[in-house]
Amino acid sequence: MADHCPRTLALSALLDGQLQPRQRRELLAHIDRCAACGERLRELETLRSRFQALPQERLGFDLGAVIEARLRVQPRPSRTARRPGMRWLLFPLSGAAALTLGLYLGSTLIRSMAGDMPAGPPMLAMAVFDPIPPGNLCPVPKSCPSGNGFR
Amino acid sequence: MDDADTERDNASIVRARAGDTRAFGEIVRRHQDRVFSFILRLTGTRDEAMDLTQEVFMKAWQALPEWRSEARFSTWLLQIARNLSIDLLRRRQVIQFAPLDDELDIADTAMGPEACYATCQRDAQLARALQRIPAGQREILLLREVEDLTYTDIARTLGIRPGTVKSRLARARAALLERLGRKAGEDHG
Ligand SMILES: [Zn+2]
């Protein structure tokens, strides 16, 4: 390695376009002289292209229909964040909905009944609603530690 | 997602917020594969990823009135997906005392039996290496390299400072390259 090798931190930031123009120029000049950093940058670029080439996974069924069926037996969303008490609301479903659900949910239902998945999700609910809710839910953005600078 | 998608999302959200379950169904269809894909790569197991994907949309429905248009809806969904996935990974560790390893679904079933040999092998190798680095590194790599989130959006999604994104990403990349190198029998020093 040559004089002062910036290693992965700077190279990774370079890859993401996160360096100031001057830092960028200096790093590129260094890479010109340093085979190790040049090689490292190529590895990072290759990694990126491998990620981008990954095919998107497919769920393989119409989840929209499943969710719609579940929502039909559930009240509309309200401003007060509710804690969902039941993981699966299967039984008030009627014929067509049940058919839509049947194939996929069969295995899920069996798992639920077998009890290897925790039933009610108080932990899940906590993860989403407390202390920082899923989206920009903070009533006062400035009071939110993760809310600053987000668009 | 481009601007047209975002606009379509926003229109559907307005209707869904008013209680229109069909509008919400449309939203689900538009995002289901992306959310599922993200969760599967993060958790490594197909059945659990299917369950969690449903859970994400049920949570999104409940939280819909709180969503604000400053946050891209697709990013907001990923944030919910991430929270539920990390919760699952924590429970899994408690139950199993060790991360899943060879029982991962992702590498073998992800691409389907047909087509591609070398490409699939290569993708599977990447998927396996991903499962062998810490979840905190895996999630940030997925958000950056697959979901193409900005540093600001990543910081928001993970609840960390933008400055932390830079260092965590660099560590994650180094760790993954090392894994891949080990697998290929190379030495990355
Ligand atoms: Zn160097």
Automatic annotation (TrEMBL), chain A:
Record-linked InterPro entries: Anti_sigma_zinc_sf, Znf_put
One matching Pfam family: zf-HC2
Database matches in Gene3D superfamilies: Anti-sigma factor, zinc-finger domain (1.10.10.1320)
Keywords of the record: Membrane, Transmembrane, Transmembrane helix
Membrane-spanning segments: 88-110
Putative zinc-finger domain: residues covered: 10-37
Protein name: Zf-HC2 domain-containing protein
Lineage, uppermost ranks: Bacteria, Pseudomonadati, Pseudomonadota, Betaproteobacteria, Rhodocyclales
UniProtKB/TrEMBL annotation, chain B:
Organism: Aromatoleum anaerobium
InterPro entries recorded: RNA_pol_sigma-70-like (IPR039425), RNA_pol_sigma-70_dom (IPR014284), RNA_pol_sigma70_r2 (IPR007627), RNA_pol_sigma70_r4_t2 (IPR013249), RNA_pol_sigma_r2 (IPR013325), RNA_pol_sigma_r3/r4-like (IPR013324), WH-like_DNA-bd_sf (IPR036388)
Family to which this protein belongs: Belongs to the sigma-70 factor family. ECF subfamily.
Keyword Protease recorded: no
Chain ranges of the RNA polymerase sigma factor 70 region 4 type domain: 125-176
Domain of life: Bacteria
Domain RNA polymerase sigma-70 region: 27-93
Keyword Magnesium among UniProt keywords: no
Signal peptide: none
Protein's name according to its UniProt entry: Sigma-70 family RNA polymerase sigma factor
Pfam family, one: Sigma70_r2
UniProt entry keywords in alphabetical sequence: DNA-binding, Sigma factor, Transcription, Transcription regulation
